[in-house]
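Exercise 3.2. Students should predict the tertiary structure of the chain below and write it as structure tokens, then compare their answer with the key that follows.

Predict this chain's 3D structure.
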Amino acid sequence: MAAGKKFTFICGNDDFLVGRAGKERFEVLTAEVTDEFAREVINGFAANVGEVEGAVNRFRDAVQTVSMFGGKRVVWLKDVNFLADTVTGRAESTLKLVEDLQQILDTVNPDETVVLITATPLDRRRSFPKWCEKHGDFSLVGGDGDSAGEALASVALAEAKSLGATFGSGAVELLLAKVGANTRLIVEETRKLASYAGDAGTIEEEHVAELTPNVAEGDFFEAAEAFFSGDLKWTLAALHRHFFTGGDARPVISALQNRNRILLQVRALVDAGEVRLGPRGLDGLPRAAGTYGSHFTGATEKSSFNLFTQNPWYVGKLAGSAKLPTLRRLIDNQQELIAAFEEIIQRPDEQEEVLREMAVRCLAPAA
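Answer key:
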């Protein structure tokens, strides 16, 4: 605990990161506490005002309890969720109980009782978090707002470092594009990739492409990669693997349509001279967003219908991973995908055959 601080307060918007940071800090704080009765963990999760009151009362009793054999006690108020902007968090009774919690913390003697609080989610506009930041050993885990993407990358980088590994060029960006904002998966995938990297210790972009499933949007990564690479043999093999494991055609079509929509917009910008494909991917996308972004009214969430909501690195990767198809080819792809969906309705027991036939029509060289 920082010198002169009465308690430790760890917060953030990601329950996994906050919980993990809290566990690590609790282990440090209890390292020299041999009496198991001098360690107490109190559940601060509350679904209503009554449960908030119960948690605060249990915490008060724990803080005021004297160690049976002398020495310090460590009390962890864990998984506090009533400091958020929720119905329970906004209730007048809850706000009064939070004032009581602040009074309890203000009277803590850190020489006798070491207090740790972990809270997620948190409304930082309120006075209590600001008071904790001033009077406690305050830690905001995972960042917030615009720094969220950087925070996710830092999770992967920190996990790799702890395992003696590093990420090669483009590997972290591809990992985040495939996994999304799931910190648990980021950590587990980083562990798996670090193990695969072995003694070399460097997680390369091709390792991520080969080993990490694309779960960010349910995108069926291999089939889409194969199709838009123009490799018919690979596409047919990817489709066979998908259906061999009991897969359905609809999510594959959805994945292909999503990528085709993105590439249609990229192709239009390239043909208009607004962006260009370079060695680093797609150059000029931010400038194009400033020019055309306002026309995507109501499409502000991440969507394949709005190119400018996509990760710029990921867009550049998609556009530069193979020869960018012509606008005519991309429009034909979209028509073929619509026709395949309609045909599956007529031939529900022949889904693999429908997609294989579509792939051949789109990718087979002209006679």
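Discussion points: The two ends are 74 Å apart (CA to CA). The longest strand covers residues 73-80.
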